[in-house]
Amino acid sequence: MRFISGFLVAILLILIAGALFVWSGAYNVAADVPHWKATSAVLEIARERSIDNHSDGISPPPLDDPELLESGFHHFHPMCRMCHGAPGYERLEFAKGLYPNPPDLTTDHIVEEFTDAQLYWIIENGLKMTGMPAFGPTHKEDELWGLVAVLKKLPQMTPEEYRAEVGAHGQEGQMGGHHGQTGDANSGHSYGQEEQAAAFESDSPQEQGSAREEVQSEGTDSAQPEGHSHDDDHAH
Ligand code: HEC
Question: For the chain, what are the domain ranges?
């Protein structure tokens, strides 16, 4: 009996100490101060196990479908490249200050570490407390699979091949306009014309100055409300 009450008092004291620590503000939430090693290790295991568990039962369609790939490139360039980079494209400045840092998706680790179903789940649901957004609420299933198809291709792509893919689709996007006058589903993306121009017209993407990059992120912000309407007229 005595042992049990001693144990309960110890637990109570730990809870009170924990509450005081949280309330005191001593914990530093700054993004430029890394987690303790132990916290990182626990988060890493939680992430791995969670992705594994939640992606169970998702079955991928054939990912070599050219249409899927085309739609994937069309979405990858404006939605993922800013944070993750792409062949020949550096991450934008803001992404370098994110904690955890968005990983480079052009290395083999993507294909080696994750199954297609796991990649789909990550893109669909995002990753809590990391800055990795959930794209499921705004995109259709085949669009998300298109992104998985792109991820599988990126590690073998040269910057020239990548630019050829996104350059071609970028032009379609610009000519189509925003509200589907042409009935072209590719036309309704949520990015300003200036951003597309900046993203697709530069001859040396790697050397783009930070000023241009900043204009791009501003373009993204201001085009956001208008862009949301595109979900309705997206045909693929
Ligand atoms: C705002 C920045 C941001 C954007 C935009 C973004 N991501 Fe991420 N993404 C992250 C961060 C940060 C992580 C790292 C999470 C972690 O370490 O747990 C991540 C992780 C991932 C991972 C897991 C990779 C790994 O090695 O752990 C995949 C796959 C991924 N993102 C795909 C995408 C795709 C595809 C898109 C576009 C549809 C995208 N991301 C857009 C920030 C972003």
Answer: 37-233
